[in-house]
Amino acid sequence: MKELYVNAPAKINLALKVDGLRDDGYHEIKTIFQSISLADRIKLKKRSGGIVVKNSKVELPTDEENLAYQAAEIFFAENNVDGGVEVYIQKNIPIAAGLAGGSTDAAAVLRALYDLYELEYNYSKLRSLLVEIGSDVPFCLEGGTVYAQGRGEILEFLPFIGEKDLLIVTPQLCISTPKIYSLYDKMKGNNTFNFEKLLKNIKKDENINWNLDYKNDLEAPAKKICQDIKDVKNIIKKTAAEFYLMSGSGPTVFAVYNNRSAAEKVAARWPRKNDFVTVVKTIDRY
Questions:
Q1: Does 241 appear as a known binding residue?
Q2: Which of 9, 58, 110, 137 is least surrounded by Cβ atoms within 10 Å, i.e. has the fewest?
Q3: Which CATH class, in words, describes the domain spanning 3-157?
Q4: d(CA 92, CA 275)
């Protein structure tokens, strides 16, 4: 095999609870990750040696700062193979948007390199390698509906919530995740919502009750930095959305509709012309 094409799906957070600052400087969180059909498209091609990363967005790094590059470094450090790789990433996921765009690229590249070089692997080992790159990267290896604890790296696979039609709206402003957490600490955000009750709802493989506390503790500090989040939610509030919430540390907001047509109508009439707007669906483990 000389080359390989793979998809790298984005994620949303159905809920995110922050449980305080840890001794290592990270925050203890509880979250429910959910994969969606929005995905980057990645091409990997064997080369005689070295790592080359290219992508469709000029503002993204192509050196050691790129998470996909770091994943390739890990692969070659772990395996005695004769060769290198050229990676091209077609970016379809907005950057720094709370959708795990860089993390999912890294996970896809590591998994694909094992396939490209026809080496055996197990997901447990790959997840342990990927945690070196970032807290949510291990989740992106297989995706699906997942309960995550710790920094986001301790995973428990949950029953798939089923195929839901979603509107994804990302304002142009990029938000720094560390900055959001820092502001959260200063605001002394309250985390009173009942995460355990909504987790039980999904674990029982029942229809999701969107009236439970599906909330995101990072939304309040994100709104302080990005007024657009509030504006986007106010527009969605006037539509037939069953549920809507900010994903991750923002600024992306997702909304759940009872059919694709309803979501597409909202997307077609979206009044803010500079936002990234698309209609996607939730997907199971891949």
A1: no
A2: 58
A3: alpha beta
A4: 14
- Tell whether 239 is in a known binding site: no
Tell me the pLDDT tens digit for each residue of 262-286: 999 999 999 999 999 999 999 999 9
- Number of C-beta neighbours around residue 3 at 10 A: 12
- Per domain, the residue ranges of the chain are 3-157, 165-281
**Could you list the active site residues?**
11, 136
Closest by CA to 166, choosing from 264, 233, 232, is: 264
Nearest by Cα to 12 from 107, 139, 177: 139
Instruction: Look at strands 276-281 and 3-21 and give their pairing.
Output: unpaired
Q: Is 95 annotated as a binding residue?
A: yes
**pLDDT band (50, 70, 90) for residue 249:** very high
pLDDT at 210: 94
Longest dimension (CA), the chain: 58
Please report how the helices 67-78 and 123-130 are oriented relative to each other, as an axis angle in degrees rounded to 10: 120
Q: What is the pTM of this model?
A: 0.96
Q: Does domain 165-281 have CATH number 3.40.50.300?
A: no
